[in-house]
């Protein structure tokens, strides 16, 4: 077996990034676009010591779970990797993935519920970040191809709101007509780096232009364009990012049209969202996620709850409706300010927010508020720092609700929690990201 060989093999599994996994002459082969149960022909494009990578050439025998992807750039864009798999098949894959991580990484035997399905398989996202790149005389705006910084031009992403397509088409006209320079990450020259769009349930849109500079030319023309063509664009922001970095957002944002925020409602609560605010990208399914969490926590209204990684206070304010007192902790100062505003906006008086590192603040919180009856953690993909887990366990908090966006780090963290005397009897996945391999999971750990 050598590079560029054409091989025929059977696919028996899916990898964590959605690649079909087969075997040929005793070696594992990863093939994008292939599904379990299929026989495929592929060209070997890479050979490593223990595995090969193939490019799908032909599906000889198709899986009954195979469907036709609605997006014309599927397979080129690195965003959605499961559009060719039926939604029932996607849920089964995610169920298997969570179970595999818990058993393989955590070494634990914990029941995993079948993922709670989304109500909308497409058009569910409320936010998108589009990188921008010069391509000869054209400008590409879209998403990175898998494993690269090459942008695939996308005119209408099927998991984004349809209005985003209209905004992007008008923006392209403004860029070309006004000769707006495009950022080049190699030379650190050019102005426009990224475009971010956010939409709430009411259809209000925030447009954020991430720029390598302090201002943009012809902004009056841009504002007028959207006032006439798409008045639901309620906010146009400039985010200043002049650093040589892959980070999308800089620290400073300036409003050039409308207001510097939009509002979103989740299960009766209202939240102010700015250019840099974090909110789950599937608003409808976020309500399912939070209802699942609080059903599993079983709060009675008499508890004190600590919410770590509280962001703009979404989970904290939900918790405040079920608890006596909630203390939210977040290291980002602006997020704490937004959380405090959101508490006042919703007339919630039993939620307090503190800015700082969770592991550093927790011991002091126990002294001032007493031991909490429950804690909630919703960390980023890297999971919890070991210091946070050990501090939580040392505080003796009887219940810990864990919301995870990464089964691998969840499994790693649960292993340490188990060693420190905490256990859970169920992990419940909730699907917020159909057409992708990503999955949220919820569990409640109890002290034993």
Characterise this structure.
This protein is an alpha+beta fold. It folds into three domains: 6-66, Nucleic acid-binding proteins (OB fold (Dihydrolipoamide Acetyltransferase, E2P)), CATH 2.40.50; 93-119 and 282-447, Rossmann fold, CATH 3.40.50.150; 127-260, OB fold (Dihydrolipoamide Acetyltransferase, E2P) (Beta Barrel). Helix content is 26%, strand content 31%. It is built from nine helices and 22 strands. Strand 2 (20-24) and strand 3 form a beta hairpin. The longest helix has 18 residues, at 87-104. It is globular.
Structural class: alpha+beta
Biggest sheet layout: 8 strands, mixed
Q: Give the oligomeric state of the chains in this entry, treating copies of one chain as homo and distinct chains as hetero.
A: single chain
Number of helices: 9
Overall geometric form:
globular
Would you give the CATH topology of the largest domain?
Rossmann fold
Q: What is the share of helical residues?
A: 25-40%
Q: Kindly provide the name of the CATH class of the largest domain.
A: Alpha Beta
- Ends apart, CA distance between termini: 54 Å
What is the correct CATH architecture of the largest domain? 3-Layer(aba) Sandwich
- Poorly predicted runs are none
What is the arithmetic mean of pLDDT? 94
Strand content: 25-35%
What Rg, in angstroms, do the CA atoms define? Answer: 24 Å
Task: Please identify which CATH superfamily of the largest domain we are dealing with.
Answer: Vaccinia Virus protein VP39
Number of strands: 22
- The figure for the number of domains is 3
């Amino acid at each position: 077996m050598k590079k560029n060989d054409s091989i025929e093999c059977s696919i028996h599994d899916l990898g964590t990034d959605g690649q079909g996994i087969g075997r040929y002459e005793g070696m594992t082969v990863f093939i994008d676009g292939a599904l379990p149960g299929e026989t495929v022909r592929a060209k070997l494009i890479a050979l490593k010591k223990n595995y090969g990578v193939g490019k799908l050439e032909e599906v000889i025998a198709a899986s009954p779970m195979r469907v036709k992807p609605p997006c014309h750039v599927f397979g080129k864009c690195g965003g959605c990797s499961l559009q060719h798999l039926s939604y029932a098949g996607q849920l089964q894959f995610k169920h298997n993935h969570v179970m595999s991580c818990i058993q393989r990484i955590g070494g634990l035997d914990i029941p995993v519920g079948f993922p709670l399905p989304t109500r909308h398989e497409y058009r569910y996202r409320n936010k998108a970040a589009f990188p921008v790149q010069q391509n000869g005389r054209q400008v590409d705006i879209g998403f990175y191809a898998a494993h690269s910084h090459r942008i695939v031009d996308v005119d209408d992403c099927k998991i984004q709101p349809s209005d985003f397509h209209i905004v992007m088409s008008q923006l392209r006209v403004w860029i070309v007509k006004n000769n707006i320079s495009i950022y080049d990450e190699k030379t650190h020259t050019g102005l426009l780096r990224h475009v971010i769009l956010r939409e709430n349930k009411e259809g209000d849109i925030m447009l954020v232009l991430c720029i390598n500079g302090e201002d943009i030319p012809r902004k009056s023309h841009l504002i007028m364009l959207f006032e006439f063509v798409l008045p639901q664009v309620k906010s146009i922001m400039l985010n200043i990012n002049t650093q040589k970095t892959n980070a999308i957002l800089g620290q400073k944002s300036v409003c050039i049209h409308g207001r510097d925020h939009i509002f979103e409602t989740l299960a009766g609560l209202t939240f102010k969202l700015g250019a840099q605010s974090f909110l789950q990208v599937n608003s409808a399914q976020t309500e399912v996620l939070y209802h699942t969490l609080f059903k599993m926590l079983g709060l009675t209204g008499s508890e004190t709850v600590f919410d770590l990684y509280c962001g703009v206070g979404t989970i904290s304010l939900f918790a405040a409706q079920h608890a006596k007192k909630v203390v939210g902790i977040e290291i980002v100062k602006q997020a704490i300010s937004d959380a405090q505003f959101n508490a006042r906006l919703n007339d919630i008086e039993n939620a307090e927010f503190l800015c700082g590192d969770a592991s550093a603040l927790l011991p002091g919180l126990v002294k001032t508020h007493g031991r909490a009856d429950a804690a909630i953690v919703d960390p980023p993909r890297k999971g919890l720092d070991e210091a946070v887990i050990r501090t939580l366990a040392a505080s003796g908090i009887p219940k810990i609700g864990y919301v995870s966006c990464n089964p691998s780090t969840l499994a790693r963290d649960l292993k340490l929690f188990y060693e420190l005397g905490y256990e859970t009897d169920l992990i419940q996945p909730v699907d917020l990201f159909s057409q992708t391999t990503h999955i949220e999971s919820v569990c409640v750990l109890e002290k034993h």
